[in-house]
Amino acid sequence: MPDLPLQPQKHRVSEQEREAFLAWLWEFLGAQKTLVLATCNDSAPACNLMSFVLASAECSLVLATPRETAKHKAMRNNPAVTLMALDSPALEQDLDRGTAVTLDGEAVEIGEGSEREQWEAAFTKANPRLEDFVKSPRSALFRVDLRRVVSVTNFQQLSEITL
After folding, report:
1. How many domains does the chain have?
2. DSSP H or E segment with residue 140
3. Helix (H, G, I), strand (E, B) or coil at 124
4. pTM metric for this prediction
5. 101-135, pLDDT tens digit by residue?
6. Are strands 99-110 and 139-153 parallel, antiparallel or unpaired?
7. CA within 13 Å, CB half, 97
8. Is 4 among the domain residues?
9. What CA–CA distance (Å, rounded) separates 12 from 49?
10. CATH code for the domain of 38
11. What is the DSSP string of 40-102?
12. In a domain, 62, yes or no
């Protein structure tokens, strides 16, 4: 194995590269089943493994959580969240082929009504085993509007885009 770079190689995604990068991002995220949600409430950070569904035409995704949880309280009190998605090579610490994507965004709880029903249907289609959970009145849905994305490939090659 060649020597690993000690310094990251940073690249800001340009306007000309934006469309291709976002298409790649949506393809990458679409191939993942879960991601890690990081929240912070009362100066206490926490991480949770989450299922999700992508918004089709927006830079957003949707998460579901029980209302009586620390992560629900944290997202309501501090909507700034970070998500991390990893592919299989990254999980296996394959530094040459693995990809990790960090997504910073703002969590907005989806209220009752037609918008929630649309997201329940989309979430259930992507995660059929979670249908009863998602449709329960004890569960909340949050749309995370993405603000910044950083992808890391080949160990230290970083690409960053602000949305």
Report:
1. 1
2. strand 139-153
3. helix
4. 0.89
5. 999 999 999 999 999 999 999 999 999 999 999 99
6. antiparallel
7. 6
8. no
9. 28
10. 2.30.110.10
11. EETTEEEEEEEEEEE-SSSSEEEEEEESSSHHHHHHHH--EEEEEEE-HHHHTT-TTT-EEEE
12. yes
